[in-house]
Amino acid sequence: MSDIKRPTSPHLQVYSWSLEMALSILHRATGVALGGGVLLMTWWIISTATGPDAYDQFRMFMSGIIGKTILFGFTFSLMLHLCNGIRHLFWDMGKGFELEDTHRSSKMVLFSSILLTILCWVIGYGLI
Amino acid sequence: MSLRSPLGKVRGLGSAKNGTHHWWMQKVTAVALIPLTIWFVSSVVQMTQASYEVVINWMTSPIVTVLMTLFVATGIYHLKLGLQVVIEDYIHSESAKVVLQMTVSFCCIITATAAIFSILKIAL
Description:
- The structure holds two protein chains of two kinds.
- In chain A, helix 1 (19-50) packs antiparallel against helix 2 (52-63), helix 1 crosses helix 3 (65-92) and helix 3 packs antiparallel against helix 4 (99-125).
- Chain A has four helices and no strands.
- Chain A has helices at residues 19-50, 52-63, 65-92, 99-125.
- The mean pLDDT of chain A is 91.
- Chain B has a single domain (21-123), classed as Fumarate reductase/succinate dehydrogenase, transmembrane subunit (3 helical TM bundles of succinate and fumarate reductases), CATH 1.20.1300.
- The longest helix of chain B is centred in the last third of the chain and has 30 residues, at 94-123.
- Chain B is elongated, with a radius of gyration of 20 Å.
């Protein structure tokens, strides 16, 4: 990169927030958050391999309020990243770039990830 | 001090030889992760209250062992590629960038090895 200080064009601050922008940064944020989810999943696998005591310790943490909050965040992050990731694959194929298509797919991504999160928790815990 | 521009310095040296590899692998792992994630989530939502024996029985089944190994390996590879780009985008100090990239690589390899070893230990 050059060291010359050239004037820069207006950046993010000049735009008003849209669902598209929110989903764009959320895709990245949930991706990083899923790194934490991977660690949680690895703890689950290792504790199962270690024995009943280690597994009970994991289960006790997960049934507490902190564990459930983390798991809920994990579920939503995974669903949003999955749904928005599928949309990204369509974009990679050159599909869905029209403005109204993007608006529609944004809403679809948001609604389906919320719906799938609720579905997971209804099946998993019988309640939300 | 050189008067040559950064572009002038690299011109004619040839490509770095890995042009679209990162992007392509991110896409390949993304496609693989769609069915793997659906399988994983639909399996674990049925085991939220499961006892130790139920989880062990589930993980001992060969198809579960194979799919879990694939899910962990593909997921962590995808994670590594994604975190790499996040660091490239936001960290501008060269030394911090190198340290962070290495840390991400090491953590991903350690986590994947530990998880896959545990999966195989349960199965075998």
